[in-house]
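Q: What changes when adenosine monophosphate is included in the input?
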Amino acid sequence: MRLILLGAPGAGKGTQAEILCKKLGIPTISTGNILRAAIKEGTLTGLKAKSYIDAGALVPDEVIIGIVDERLAQPDCQSGYILDGVPRTIAQAEALEKAGIRFDAVVSIEISEEEILRRMSGRRVCEACGSSYNVEAVPPRREGICDNCGGRLIQRKDDTPETVRERLKVYHTETEPLVDFYAQRGLLRSVQSSTREETTQAILAALGMEK
Ligand code: AMP
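A: The predicted holo structure follows.
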């Protein structure tokens, strides 16, 4: 199964990708997580990406395409993968096509802007493994501590209200056109973002998979 998860920031792509990768036994490739890890490690890619991420802007396509090419070439991607947060522009989607990469389905997770702003103010991520929580909807078992790895939970710098508004603007202009792009290719399945469990069920149903 080669799957793309599309959706506005805060729609729950990362959370659903984590759940689906366990259920389907395939890796998730999250460019956001890869970039945050690169920033933490202080690599050249991290240095290039940091100012864009902090401003809520998109990292240049060539940086992203390089990251994805390299990641998809790894052996664990042979039996499938879930792309979370990529492609985010038509140019990225075209680069994937040009590289001969084909997908089985593209799931678009739909959500209102009001709900996005509410969710993102409560979002916390693990600084060690990138797992995502929400102080209201999906709290960790111990406050401030990751259930998966015991790492520290932090609020992302780009989850502040001003940066979220900028990211939403960028989403509408740069990423939303991908909905039509994949609809034209007959790959698009749209689901409504709801609770974590309901959204997972809706995605599995949209993919024609049993619970
Ligand atoms: P995310 O964790 O997916 O919300 O990504 C966080 C930030 O990383 C985005 O706001 C962008 O600055 C950058 N980013 C992640 N994925 C991409 C991508 N495919 N193209 C461009 N920028 C990206």
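Observations recorded in class: The mean pLDDT is 94.
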